[in-house]
Fold this sequence. Notes:
Blueprint: H1 8-15, E1 19-24, H2 26-33, H3 39-43, E2 53-56, E3 62-65, E4 71-74, H4 82-95, E5 106-109, E6 112-115, H5 131-140, H6 149-160, E7 173-181, H7 187-203, E8 218-226, H8 232-246, E9 251-256, H9 274-281, H10 285-300, H11 309-313, H12 328-331, H13 333-353, H14 363-403, H15 405-415, H16 440-453, H17 457-473, H18 477-493, H19 503-516, H20 520-536, H21 540-549, H22 556-571, H23 578-594, H24 598-612, H25 618-634, H26 638-650, H27 657-677, E10 690-691, E11 697-700, E12 711-713, H28 725-742, E13 757-758, E14 769-771, E15 776-783, E16 790-803, E17 815-816, E18 825-827, E19 830-835, E20 840-849, E21 853-867, E22 889-899, H29 911-915, E23 928-930, E24 936-941, E25 946-948, E26 951-961, E27 967-974, E28 980-981, E29 1005-1007, E30 1017-1021, E31 1036-1038, E32 1045-1046, E33 1051-1059, E34 1065-1077, E35 1086-1098, E36 1101-1109, E37 1122-1131, E38 1139-1151, E39 1154-1159, E40 1168-1170, E41 1175-1184, E42 1192-1198, E43 1202-1204, H30 1211-1232, H31 1234-1239, H32 1245-1253, E44 1255-1270, E45 1273-1287, E46 1292-1293, H33 1323-1327, E47 1330-1335, ...
Parallel strand pairs: 1-4, 1-7, 7-8, 8-9, 14-23, 25-35, 48-57
Antiparallel strand pairs: 2-3, 5-6, 10-15, 11-13, 11-15, 12-24, 15-20, 16-17, 16-19, 16-21, 18-20, 21-22, 21-23, 24-26, 26-33, 26-45, 27-31, 27-32, 27-34, 28-33, 29-43, 30-42, 34-35, 36-37, 36-46, 37-41, 38-40, 38-42, 38-44, 39-41, 44-45, 47-49, 49-53, 50-52, 50-55, 51-53, 54-57, 55-56
Amino acid sequence: xxxxxxxxxxxxxxxxxxxxxxxxxxxxxxxxxxxxxxxxxxxxxxxxxxxxxxxxxxxxxxxxxxxxxxxxxxxxxxxxxxxxxxxxxxxxxxxxxxxxxxxxxxxxxxxxxxxxxxxxxxxxxxxxxxxxxxxxxxxxxxxxxxxxxxxxxxxxxxxxxxxxxxxxxxxxxxxxxxxxxxxxxxxxxxxxxxxxxxxxxxxxxxxxxxxxxxxxxxxxxxxxxxxxxxxxxxxxxxxxxxxxxxxxxxxxxxxxxxxxxxxxxxxxxxxxxxxxxxxxxxxxxxxxxxxxxxxxxxxxxxxxxxxxxxxxxxxxxxxxxxxxxxxxxxxxxxxxxxxxxxxxxxxxxxxxxxxxxxxxxxxxxxxxxxxxxxxxxxxxxxxxxxxxxxxxxxxxxxxxxxxxxxxxxxxxxxxxxxxxxxxxxxxxxxxxxxxxxxxxxxxxxxxxxxxxxxxxxxxxxxxxxxxxxxxxxxxxxxxxxxxxxxxxxxxxxxxxxxxxxxxxxxxxxxxxxxxxxxxxxxxxxxxxxxxxxxxxxxxxxxxxxxxxxxxxxxxxxxxxxxxxxxxxxxxxxxxxxxxxxxxxxxxxxxxxxxxxxxxxxxxxxxxxxxxxxxxxxxxxxxxxxxxxxxxxxxxxxxxxxxxxxxxxxxxxxxxxxxxxxxxxxxxxxxxxxxxxxxxxxxxxxxxxxxxxxxxxxxxxxxxxxxxxxxxxxxxxxxxxxxxxxxxxxxxxxxxxxxxxxxxxxxxxxxxxxxxxxxxxxxxxxxxxxxxxxxxxxxxxxxxxxxxxxxxxxxxxxxxxxxxxxxxxxxxxxxxxxxxxxxxxxxxxxxxxxxxxxxxxxxxxxxxxxxxxxxxxxxxxxxxxxxxxxxxxxxxxxxxxxxxxxxxxxxxxxxxxxxxxxxxxxxxxxxxxxxxxxxxxxxxxxxxxxxxxxxxxxxxxxxxxxxxxxxxxxxxxxxxxxxxxxxxxxxxxxxxxxxxxxxxxxxxxxxxxxxxxxxxxxxxxxxxxxxxxxxxxxxxxxxxxxxxxxxxxxxxxxxxxxxxxxxxxxxxxxxxxxxxxxxxxxxxxxxxxxxxxxxxxxxxxxxxxxxxxxxxxxxxxxxxxxxxxxxxxxxxxxxxxxxxxxxxxxxxxxxxxxxxxxxxxxxxxxxxxxxxxxxxxxxxxxxxxxxxxxxxxxxxxxxxxxxxxxxxxxxxxxxxxxxxxxxxxxxxxxxxxxxxxxxxxxxxxxxxxxxxxxxxxxxxxxxxxxxxxxxxxxxxxxxxxxxxxxxxxxxxxxxxxxxxxxxxxxxxxxxxxxxxxxxxxxxxxxxxxxxxxxxxxxxxxxxxxxxxxxxxxxxxxxxxxxxxxxxxxxxxxxxxxxxxxxxxxxxxxxxxxxxxxxxxxxxxxxxxxxxxxxxxxxxxxxxxxxxxxxxxxxxxxxxxxxxxxxxxxxxxxxxxxxxxxxxxxxxxxxxx
Length: 1455
């Protein structure tokens, strides 16, 4: 049970006090009424004696009575009606609400802190720190114990309003005060009349009520004198007469009303009556109704979360203060209501009566009344009771000795001295038995009751015990139960506790009252007394069982109060039973609700909620929250109701859809009512739908235009694209690259990469930049946790804006969103937004900034409503059919807001950040609106999606300036510059529109003369014309705008040539268009536009080329340098693409040092055609160029009718781009060996010279046409492939071959040598130093008959291929050692000098005349001379044999 203000002993003593009746004359009543009090009310505050009282028991022993209280009541001759009592009890409980104390009413049970005050609106969470010490502190302290004043008021009122009964005398009147005014004409006569009236009431048969203790009731004569008006001498004389007539012990002169109303008005006199009278005023229905109205008004303006502190003050289950010191405004709402209401009630009573109670009384009068009660008790009441006890005792002794002696002797003879008590089940139902008033059993009971009233508990127990036996013997069950009840209480109250409390007496009494006598009132009194006694003995479990046993359907109020007390018993046990406490609080709340006690019901549910909250018992939580919401709404505590319903909706509900729909409608209804109370207040936070704030995305700029026919807009960025960190990094690198080029190789410190779309993965640490008049789109992710659809209407963004002129220094004022601010920031609203059950859906909301400044997007604002008929029927999903069109709302919608609060990334850089939890800023919702900037749109016309590898296609790009300011410095940057070109720098190099040439070719072509077939047509071009080799980044390309400026609204179309990448597959090629405004701004310097082209390439041709030195040393021009070029072209295209055949139309060379001279094809075909999987072999002769080293020489060998000018766009563009990408690729590879190169600082220049001999710088472009059949139409496609030849004798390919992975081998562990070996040239490189060539007749006729020796002159040509001076040694003594060679070629001899030593300068050709001697006919190999070469300035001989590439055969014929 809850803690009480009084101890158990005080409570029981005050429950049973001597009753004194008061009978007043009309004039006496008038005197007391001057104080707005009746006589009984006047004396009530003074009815407790302040000193000890002594009396003697029948054995003449002195008995001390402490703290005695008497009760003085007006005589009421009609017993109270049960209905009136019920109403009185209802009102007492209703008015008594939790009092607001200095410390919150908290008890700790296990891991719970339970707030047992008011409605416990603070969220309670398990609180683990030092709870044991706290528990001990709470248990030993009186401040923290949970009190229930409404229960004590109910109990007091219940005991006082119990009707008098015949089977007991505790509430029978012991005495009667006769009160007469001294101002009456004949007071003595008036006393006589009142005495007769009292006699008539007591002894006449027409009055059965009230009950009187004994026939000769004590009459006490009180003369009331009004000091302010009456004559004091007359009063004294009448009093003297009364003393002679009634004795000094039987009368009293009470002087009151000493205060004169016009004097001392400012003096404050205490009002001790109000606390007693308030309980009586409850019976006045009018004042109770006033209270209800007042309490409603006083609660309407109170604001509280009602359930959960997390939402209100942002504490995530962490108390900022000690939980015992919860703040009262949010924690004790009902107490404040009650305080306000009670003061209002007192005010209303004061205003009704005009003056407060006791207005005519002074403090002296107070003392006189107190003295009067003491005199009455000392001289009148207690002597009368003492005398009555003696008389009853004497009567009982005499009567029992005479009339009962025989009966007692017989009983002892047959059954022994002790009469066994029969069990309750054996007793017959004789509760109807009535004793006559003079029956000795009743006299014993009467004596026991008198002793009990004057605290003589030992004698009382003895008498009750005796009476109990007699009643049980007579089967008088009602009487027996009464005796058992009081015997148990007397046993408990005996000083020194000689015997234990007989709880079984009480249980028997309760069972008898309830089951046999059917008297629930008496049973309830028994339970109230016994439970309090058991609680004082810490027998909480037994007390709880007792309280629960008396709950029944006949009284909801009683059941509710007892269940609540049982709940408190459970939580006060040694091991608190918290869940039982909560369960019984729920039961109590339910019964309170049925009894009409809405406030108490609400309080019980809130207290129970503390236990059920956060335990995962969602259905229980839903039930409690729903009831709390309902009760709060009934009590007009709308904020609490809204909070409770909010909880039902936001906790992942396990309820069926129909129930969730009902909860939602209830919430909306309550919320609407709450909103109507403060229509001008701030918009409240709505709980639904959930918003995933971190998933919020912000997009700056206009939506992308869709493609129009052949026009395809740049892909740019849109909210429909998924975020890709790798792609994002690529765009950032591209932008850094172009900014670096613009700023001459450095990136400015204030550079901020352009981010069009901000999300949880992007870098949001800086304030994003948005441009004035360009929309800002915020994508908000909503989730509907319910199983019913939600309808959001009029959904828009909530923002705050601070205008700032970035060109000036002064700032403007901050503007919140309002109707007048549309000229600053335009807001777009979504009229209807439906979220189906358990759906996650995004809404895109736009803002249009019209001024520069700082914008802060705070959240969203919308009307929340439900869709009518949203409950599924027959298992059909209600969301079907709700996808499009107008949705029918059920009319309930409420306006509110939700904030977008995004937590930034966790910081993890410094040690402090790593050891603590710190989060960085996330500024994606705080854009800075900058000044006007140009805005570019790019459209691609005839842009292909599929190409053959190497295919050339011409498309057009349209650039449109859609802003109001001009645009300049347009550049495009891409990681794949070899994919496209805008043409050369000069108009001459850029061909006309494609229609000007045959077959609409993308190339610049010239019709050729048929005679010049297979001979090279020469032209030259500088790499600078095509933007290569100028020192800039090859990836950054200037877009050739006319006048370099694009004016507002202007558009320009430029041709763009594309070349299919050499590798087959799908290619994503990123273009980043960079541009600037004419005016430079402080915030935004440039803008970019992104485009991703997706090209699918299929296989076309594969080209393999080798170059080798020609044996013919002399060419037409007499130069000794020429080479042979072998080109293998294979058609690797699969027929799926519809390509019929490829035609090789031209082979061109581009080099600074070499050029193709002519074709030496064996085939006589003019055109080279390749069907699927066919291969063609082409052979060309290449010679050295004469032109300067700056320009590239282009040589075209044409196989068709048209020459493609390879030195013009686009052929040369793609050649130079492939050249730069090839250079980049090899540069990267060589860069990886930088560490090795660092060791070899002593690399010898001569070795480089040797290596250079075998190097060749020749690039081949193979131009082709492909005939494609598509939709029964023949198309001609054209393209080009590039092969870069670097080394003599080494194969080169048009596309690098994929290297096969080597087989896995065993690991070898070795220690690297410290000294690196100096690099040596390979034998192959050394053998290329000197090129040799033998000149001789192919056949030689000689007559061996005439001359036996045949001498043949042979010229040996030696050509130095390097730039250095070379020492050459020719050795003619070499003989073939293998017998096979001898058999085939035979043997011959060189005549003359057998060894020559020569020195050849760089590029020198030397001719050496030799003679070969043959002895008979045959075929001979003249390639036997061994040639050794070494560099002149080399100490070490790098000597190697210079071998001929093929045998030199001569035929010797005999004539």
